């Protein structure tokens, strides 16, 4: 970030009773950036968003937008707007009046409100629904009203709390594109909170991964995927084969498997994990010099296939990804070789689990597809 | 039903549902018998009062043919009409106070307390024995040397009515999406404007329901009014009570029927309003 950042979060700490929701989180967000706060539920991402909006008061730290100290302002005076997870549309007001509500608050004249509401309804393609009540709209339409209501205020920063979680899968995909389009069109800075790594990856310019109130890593989606900074990030972003062991000069020594050569050598002897993406695993009859395993299953996903291989000595199968269809069938004996691997530090308190396939929860087959595509 | 059974013969396992239905329905009906007996016990006296209000006889317990004579007679009864007027003044006044205070109380409790004891204290007057409230308020008024009259009854009724309004508005509030108020503030409306433009309209059904309930409760309240009013300004229930002691005329039945009508209308509209926007989300 060369230019002055739009939003600066500096050492923000949030505490609820005995639990610390945010441990001194600092980050900068640039003008016109599409920024995502990503993490599992309870990681503090929503607390941070609500602190920026003014609905939570951090115990310490500073939040500034364009140099304006936000924490000294009440929520209704902050130059930021939020799109709520529940959308929070006012049930007793029409679409039009919902959208114009924030302009009425500014004390603008009727004519100007009407013009601006009309413009914004065109942008989100809601013109024909102006007189409807929120209860008469579909989920996708409500989402667009909520969005219109926030952007009509032309905020310096638009905060979106799990903007797509209330939509069903198909609508969600088109709304992702829609949000991207809008962000370019209106030229606003978006901060999206999400627990869905796929959503964050496909929309955001940069992603801050939060875990248990701490900022794990802040980077572009590509960088997070290729160079995860921690075992947590590697596990959370995309699909990965994780091999826990100890760092060596050239990679990670995995018990029962030997040394896996990996980039980013850490201090020798420190707990480390080798991260190998499925597309960096080569499997086939003709592969030699690596490991031997048995094909457990293959998943054909159209553009790519995922092969799950049981390797003796590893409790979880190794996932390999290839373009198109695979000729391998269940039960086949294959050689397995690892291509590019990255070594990341591992929290020693985490029990080493050899050859864990990530994410920790089983990934549905259709999500594997998106990652390898 | 006949149609259904005809098709069932063809279908085997999948259409098993319609077959046992008649048996189940019969069993249901049996279960309902005690319920209906209970209802008879509850409503029979009321039905008798209503029927007897159209009795031509002066004797309360002997049916002597249909007549509407007690209704005009009721309206000619000066004491009764004065009592009714007093009661309407009290009910209106108490309802007004209770609605405003109860709504504000509910808002405050919901937003600024974590519940428990404060909530219990706000709602307790609704379930405290009337006798206790009556004696307590009388003591309180005489301690402060407040003269007794309709104003003291209004204040006394406002005490328990406020509790009812608070309870109903709190329930309504608990069902509101808390992000509505946050959204309003986020869009630039301060706390006061948010309350007027978002919170109040959302609470309106609960507030109206609470007000109607407060009104009907005050209308026929006897014990507390008896303690806190001046002997010269009796409310309707007190007037009736003193009449009963000197022998009841069928006018009382006519009056009871009219009051019943008012109460039913109020309660039904209160229910309608609470349901109106209830299950919206």
UniProtKB/TrEMBL annotation, chain A:
Keywords for the protein's UniProt record, in alphabetical order: ATP-binding, Nucleotide-binding, Transport
- Domain ABC transporter stretches: 7-237
The answer to keyword Nucleotide-binding applying to this record is yes
Gene Ontology terms, MF aspect = ATP binding
UniProt name for this protein: ABC transporter ATP-binding protein
Record has ATP-binding as a keyword: yes
Task: Mention any Pfam family matching this sequence.
Answer: TOBE_2
UniProtKB/TrEMBL annotation, chain B:
Q: Which residues form the ABC transmembrane type-1 domain?
A: 84-270
Q: Which Pfam families match?
A: BPD_transp_1
Q: Where are the transmembrane segments?
A: 31-54, 84-109, 121-144, 150-174, 195-216, 222-240, 252-271
Keywords from the named record:
Cell membrane, Membrane, Transmembrane, Transmembrane helix, Transport
What InterPro entries does this protein's entry cite? Bact_Polyamine_Transport, MetI-like, MetI-like_sf
Q: What is its main location?
A: membrane
Q: Where is the composition biased (Low complexity)?
A: 1-18
Task: Provide the membrane topology annotation.
Answer: Multi-pass membrane protein
Where found in the cell?
Answer: Cell membrane
The region called Disordered is annotated at 1-22
Q: What family is reported?
A: Belongs to the binding-protein-dependent transport system permease family. CysTW subfamily.
Protein name, as recorded: ABC transporter permease
Give the originating organism.
Agromyces tropicus
């Amino acid at each position: 970030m060369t230019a002055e950042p739009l939003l600066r979060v500096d050492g923000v700490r949030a505490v609820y009773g005995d639990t610390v929701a945010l441990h001194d989180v600092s980050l900068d967000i640039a003008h016109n950036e599409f920024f995502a706060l990503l993490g599992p539920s309870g990681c503090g991402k929503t607390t941070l968003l609500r602190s920026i909006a003014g609905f939570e008061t951090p115990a310490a730290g500073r939040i500034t937008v364009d140099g304006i100290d936000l924490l000294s302002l009440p929520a209704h005076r902050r130059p930021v707007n939020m799109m709520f997870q529940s959308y929070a549309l006012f049930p007793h007001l029409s679409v039009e009046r919902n959208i114009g509500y924030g302009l009425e608050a500014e004390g603008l004249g009727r004519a100007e409100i009407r013009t601006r509401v009309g413009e914004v309804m065109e942008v989100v393609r809601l013109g024909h629904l102006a007189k409807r009540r929120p209860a008469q709209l579909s989920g996708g339409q409500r989402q667009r009203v909520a969005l219109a209501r926030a952007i009509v205020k032309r905020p310096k920063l638009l905060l979106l709390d799990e903007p797509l979680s209330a939509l069903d899968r198909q609508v969600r995909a088109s709304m992702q594109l829609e949000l991207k389009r809008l962000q370019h069109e209106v030229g606003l800075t978006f901060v999206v909170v999400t627990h869905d790594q796929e959503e964050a990856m496909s929309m955001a310019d940069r992603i801050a991964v939060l875990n248990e109130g701490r900022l794990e890593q802040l980077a572009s989606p590509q960088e997070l995927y290729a160079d995860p900074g921690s075992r947590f990030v590697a596990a959370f972003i995309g699909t990965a084969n994780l091999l826990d062991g100890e760092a060596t000069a050239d990679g990670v020594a995995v018990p029962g498997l030997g040394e896996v050569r990996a980039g980013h050598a850490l201090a020798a002897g420190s707990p480390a994990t080798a991260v190998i993406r499925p597309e960096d695993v080569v499997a086939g009859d003709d592969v030699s010099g690596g490991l031997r395993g048995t094909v457990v299953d293959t998943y054909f996903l159209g553009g790519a296939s995922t092969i799950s291989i049981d390797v003796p000595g590893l409790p979880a199968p190794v996932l390999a990804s290839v373009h198109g269809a695979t000729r391998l069938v269940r039960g086949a004996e294959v050689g397995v070789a690892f291509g590019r691997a990255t070594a990341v530090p591992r929290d020693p308190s985490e029990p080493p689990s050899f050859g864990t396939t990530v994410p920790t929860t089983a990934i549905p087959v259709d999500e594997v597809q998106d990652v390898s595509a | 039903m006949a149609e259904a059974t005809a098709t069932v013969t063809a279908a085997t396992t999948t259409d098993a549902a319609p077959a046992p239905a008649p048996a189940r329905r019969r069993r249901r009906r049996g279960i309902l018998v005690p319920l209906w007996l209970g209802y008879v016990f509850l409503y029979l006296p009321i039905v008798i009062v209503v029927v007897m209000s159209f009795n031509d006889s002066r004797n309360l317990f002997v049916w002597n043919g249909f007549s509407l004579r007690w209704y005009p007679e009721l309206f000619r009864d000066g004491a009764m009409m004065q009592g009714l007027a007093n009661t309407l003044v009290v009910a209106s006044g108490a309802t007004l106070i209770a609605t405003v205070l109860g709504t504000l109380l509910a808002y405050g409790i919901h937003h600024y307390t974590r519940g428990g004891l404060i909530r219990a204290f706000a709602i307790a007057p609704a379930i405290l024995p009337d006798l206790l409230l009556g004696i307590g308020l009388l003591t309180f008024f005489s301690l402060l040397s407040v003269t007794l009259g309709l104003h003291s009854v209004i204040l006394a009724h406002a005490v328990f009515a406020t509790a009812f309004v608070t309870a109903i508005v709190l329930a309504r509030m608990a069902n509101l999406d808390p992000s509505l108020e946050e959204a309003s503030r986020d869009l630039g409306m301060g706390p006061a404007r948010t309350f007027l433009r978002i919170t109040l309209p959302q609470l309106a059904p609960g507030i109206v329901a609470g007000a109607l309930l407060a009104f009907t409760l005050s209308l026929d309240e006897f014990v507390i009014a008896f303690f806190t009013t001046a002997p010269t300004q009796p409310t309707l229930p007190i007037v009736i009570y003193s009449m009963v002691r000197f022998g009841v005329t069928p006018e009382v039945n006519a009056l009871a029927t009219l009051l019943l009508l008012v109460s039913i209308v109020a309660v039904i509209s209160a229910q309608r309003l609470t349901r109106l926007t209830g299950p919206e989300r």
